[in-house]
Amino acid sequence: MSTIVAILGAESSGKTTLAAQLADALRARGLRVALVGEVLREFCDAHGRTPRQDEQAGIADEQWRRIDAAAHAAEVVIADTTALMIAIYSDFVFGDTSLYAPALERQSRCALTLVTGLDIAWQPDGLQRDGPQVRAPIDAKLRGALDGAGLGYALVYGEGEARLAAALRVVERLPAIAARAPVRHAATTAAPPPDEEPAPPLRLRGRCRECLQADCEHRLFELRASGAAPPWPSRSACSPPSANEDGDDDLASAHAPGHRPIRSYVLRAGRVGPGQARALAELGPRFVLPFEPCVIDWDAVFGRRAPRVLEIGFGMGDATAQIAAARPELDFIGCEVHEPGVGALLKRIDALGLANLRIVRHDAVQVLERMLAPASLAGIHVFFPDPWHKKKHHKRRLIQPAFVHALASRLAPGGYLHCATDWQPYAAQMLEVLSREPALRNTAAGYAPKPGYRPLTKFEQRGLRLGHGVWDLVFERSGARD
User: Fold this and answer.
1) Cα 237 to chain centroid, rounded
2) Quick check: helix, strand or coil at residue 204?
3) Per-residue model confidence (pLDDT) at position 440
4) DSSP for 153-186, written as a single string
5) Nearest 5°: phi and psi at 383?
6) Nearest partner of 176 among 26, 77, 80, 75, judged by Cα
7) Strands 33-36 and 154-156
8) Largest Cα–Cα separation, the chain
9) What whole-number distance in Å separates Cα of residue 336 and Cα of residue 138?
10) Which residues contact 259 (CB under 8 A, 6 or more apart)?
């Protein structure tokens, strides 16, 4: 009986390349391998367009017919996508969920499902691909469909040969392929030590058990590939240190290989209301961008060239939406990790009809490092970041020398960095750190008057009524570009 390996994933996530590489690697081991290509791509190439809703079922049927036919002639079938991806796109584009049931039944016949991660840059093809903003929603629908049907899958990350090696480590555990796997050194085939967690079952649902974020899963694969972590670690690579853990870590070293990053936030499980959930589903594909590990074309994202302002940690988005509405000549990029806040801001974007605001639901440190070019921003807003009151938690504060240097590097000459806090000790630290950054100069003698564009939040208004202070700091980028 043939062994079917399905490779699924969002667009431009390396499925076709990985499928061809995997087929060649298995053929080199003497296996009879059939590679089944993507019928949807053939359709688009032949017709010069994407399929209509009434054509989706036929494409899905033809995809499985070819897989089934190949299974009668080969020992191993490598399927570059299956009918399940057609069902997902039919749902995403047309709202048609009728193709899920037959697609999932067929998917259950596959011995292994590999899901390609979103760690490689999106590439246009001029026809079939919609854009980088659809990758995260499609990836979420794919994992949700597999999870809902109880079908396991393994995630594949890495560049080039590392991606192939990650896939082979899983594929080689299939009985039909294990017998042909290359002989390994005895040290790699020996039983694990008694205190090491054994490998999970093959049909593992491959995801980080701590945060479920794709970038964390990517870090896990990097750690495994480098040998810095066991093949299936019992603790997630993204696990934050507990409250009583102290150390000398800072944001500057957060992304060193094998280094556990210290985050300036904690992902709390906030409730997503019905209106927020609806906004995430309906408006998210347009306004929420997936994290990309490379600089993206922001002019293309906004459909124009305009000065851009980054806001880090916008909370529920009240101030962000008000500023964007009042300053239509600027484009705004909001970074926030908490889903209820993203949903709330999407509702405000819709209510105000905003076209100059986009959201990245990801760690702002990585967004700054990867997605934004040096000297590309007209302004950066950091309003009321978590003050981390306890002394042992001060290392978690966002405004640290290394991060401020990174912020300054992304500002164009004359661009501004505006921070605000209602915690006086944190304000003093901000002033000290910002004043020590040689690329920045203070626009005031100390703390700045509140600029007119920053609205008062309801929490700030309540604090002012109670006599609490608020401190604004506005620094400007000076000198030549780094």
Assistant:
1) 16
2) coil
3) 96
4) BEEE--STHHHHHHHHHHHTTSHHHHTTSPP--H
5) -100, 120
6) 75
7) unpaired
8) 79
9) 20
10) 249, 253
Kindly tell me the burial class for residue 102, based on how many C-beta atoms sit within 10 Å of its own C-beta (0-12, 13-18, 19 or more): middle
- Lateral strand order in the sheet of 112-116: 33-36, 76-80, 3-8, 112-116, 154-156
Residue partners of 468: CB distance under 8 A and separation at least 6: 422
Between CA 23 and CA 21 the distance in angstroms is 5
Tokens of 254: 């957060």
The whole-angstrom separation of Cα 385 and Cα 383 is 6
Q: What does the alpha-carbon distance between residue 260 and residue 279 come to, in Å, rounded to a whole number?
A: 34
Type of residue numbered 479: G
pTM reported for the whole predicted model: 0.51
Question: What would you report as the CA-atom Rg of the chain, rounded to the nearest whole angstrom?
Answer: 25
Report how far residue 444's alpha carbon sits from residue 141's, in angstroms, rounded to the nearest whole number.
49
Q: Residue 55 is which amino acid?
A: E
φ/ψ (deg, to 5) at 4 = -105, 125
Rounded Cα distance, 203 and 151, in Å: 7
Alpha-carbon distance 99 to 88, whole Å?
A: 8
Contact between 168 and 22 under an 8 Å Cβ cutoff? The reply is: yes
- d(CA 115, CA 167) in angstroms, rounded, equals 10
Q: Which residues of the chain have pLDDT under 70?
A: 122-133, 179-271, 389, 393, 396, 459, 480-482
Show which residues are catalytic: 386
What confidence score (pLDDT) does residue 354 get? 96
H/E element, 199: none
pLDDT at 242: 31
Residue-level pLDDT at 130: 52
- For tokens 């961008």, name the residue: 289
